[in-house]
Amino acid sequence: MAFILITVVLDATGIGLLAPVLPRLIGELSGADLTRAAVYGGWITALFATVQFLAAPLLGNLSDRFGRRPVLLVSLAAFGLNYLVMGFAPSLAWLFVAQAVAGLCGATAATAGAYLADISTVGNRAKHFGMMGGAFSFGFVIGPVLGGVLGNFGLRVPIFAAAGLALVNFIYGLLVLPESLKPELRRPFSLARAHVLGTIRQMRRHPLVFGILGGVLLMSIAGQTLPATWPYFTMHKLGWREQEVGYSLGAYGLLGIMAQAWLIPALMRRFGPRGTALVGQLLGIASLVGFAFAPTSPLIIACIVPSALSFVAWPAMSSIMSAHTPPQSQGELQGAIASAQSLAAVFTPLLMPRVFSAFAAADAPVYFPGAAFLLAAVLLVGSAVVVRRVTRDMAPLPAGAASTAGPPGH
Fold first, then answer.
1. How confident is the model over 274-331, as pLDDT tens digits?
2. Which domains does the chain have, with CATH numbers?
3. What's the whole-model pTM score?
């Protein structure tokens, strides 16, 4: 458990380390100004997410065949070496190649999630997934801060720091990480299942899981709307500066950590996994509507609280899907979840900033800068409806049941 949490923190920190220096590094390698560098940066982000979308089922299926440990360790080693390539990149093309490889290695979230499922019971699975989500948020909070500080010593220094973190984590895992998937629970590797369409076919055999995956996709698009549009929205509507944008995103991340680490156990005891997922989604809907219509900075800031608390929906939904998936297919499930989130990461930056721009422009037929948040709220309502419907007849999960017991009748 400790290794998985440290792995997730270091992975997220490594990605966050690049954020403050990547625009200037792109400009240095391409000779482009900041506005053009932003376009290149968007393409790089979309490439990373696209590769991750395609790679997650492959890594998940490989971990179901060979175990979690070797897949995690090979991915961590490749991640560290890839950062070294980025650090020495002589041209913009090398950055694109490196980010494509990073997308492949960054799909380790699928294997880490499968590892957690292996070592969890039904009673503590949501708590463990919440801790993993909190660890990821923590890494994204401290990563940009460290990147900004280290960037003062050179544009490439944060990249080499990220390489060091990944390689140290690899050595740590090599020394201490045991295998979590018993040999008798492994299944033969099938290339027909190790891609997105093959994974979809397999997940359709479990209607409850397949339905919730649809809810995860809608929820991910809604959730990623905030980071995709927040700087532009707050600077345009409220006149915020970069410092205020950074502070607000830091507060958002810290509240998300607290929600996933401390709030989930209380909600799970009170409402169960299904109720906790729906409570989280309702909080998210309320916050998005608030962002869309709130007229002043204090009200916008107040809406950050329910938005961060809505993070509790993700581990609750993950725990339901994990409990209704056979133990030998946990890697495949986590690959499907990671692919849904990566697909959202490709789609959201292409859609939501355009919606904001269309309704915030001076010549917009209707001036409404919060339009992207309102659209996200509609998508999250759709997610809540899907989750409520597919889990309506779900049998209660027995407290303390072993995760290796298989899907209870679904």
1. 999 999 999 999 999 999 999 999 999 999 999 989 988 988 898 899 888 887 777 7
2. 1-177 (1.20.1250.20), 198-393 (1.20.1250.20)
3. 0.69
